[in-house]
Amino acid sequence: xxxxxxxxxxxxxxxxxxxxxxxxxxxxxxxxxxxxxxxxxxxxxxxxxxxxxxxxxxxxxxxxxxxxxxxxxxxxxxxxxxxxxxxxxxxxxxxxxxxxxxxxxxxxxxxxxxxxxxxxxxxxxxxxxxxxxxxxxxxxxxxxxxxxxxxxxxxxxxxxxxxxxxxxxxxxxxxxxxxxxxxxxxxxxxxxxxxxxxxxxxxxxxxxxxxxxxxxxxxxxxxxxxxxxxxxxxxxxxxxxxxxxxxxxxxxxxxxxxxxxxxxxxxxxxxxxxxxxxxxxxxxx
Length: 285
Prior knowledge:
Layout: E1 2-5, E2 8-12, E3 18-23, E4 28-31, H1 37-50, E5 57-59, H2 65-70, E6 77-81, E7 86-87, E8 102-103, E9 111-112, E10 117-118, E11 122-124, E12 127-132, E13 135-141, E14 150-154, E15 159-163, H3 179-189, E16 198-201, E17 205-207, H4 209-232, H5 236-240, H6 243-247, H7 252-255, H8 258-284
Parallel strand pairs: 4-5, 5-6, 6-11, 15-16
Antiparallel strand pairs: 1-2, 2-3, 3-4, 7-10, 8-9, 12-13, 13-14, 14-15, 16-17
């Protein structure tokens, strides 16, 4: 666990996610949460040494399944954007075998079916402020990376958690993204409003504004490719042919990793199907 400011910590869990802990004299707020059940006990032990009792709030930064399923087993009050649903804490299928429904995710491995999804206890539309004694925690809707994406900002300490909005040398999951909005968000994050901030990426830990600018170029390339394909009315096969061009933005060793190719393939396919479904619905109205 790394302390990046007084009473503010980050830690990488077994899924590779960089999660956050914001503590006060009487409570703790978590930003994302461990997925594995055997990690939950260690996190509770760590946070109980910081404050009296377990963590009070859990902020989930988007709807990617590693986050959604990590809320299983959490006793915290869940905070998320209004577009988010999260798995029920108690009722999760234990059925195994060929008939088990598989949820495909942006990760390499598919995730088992969740039998019941419930809304979080606290939601918001555009922004909210969570008062935790010495800190104000600002939550803002940032839908570039995900329709329910959130940035968590602690202005007093110049720290901002941006989830999957920024990555270093790995392709994004595009299934629930808005590349046009994403580019504008990256320009904002790289600008004067966040000069001097510690920017925490879920996949890479603390990143710089220079990293944000480089990532903006990647998302800008993807946006332009999507715009061209939409203008041409291209079929899905043409969209998938763009994957090698996107992969050229990353290092050669990473390009050979099948997981990253699959992440782009599944994300593009999901994005294409969702947007074509919406288009067809509009035309039928």
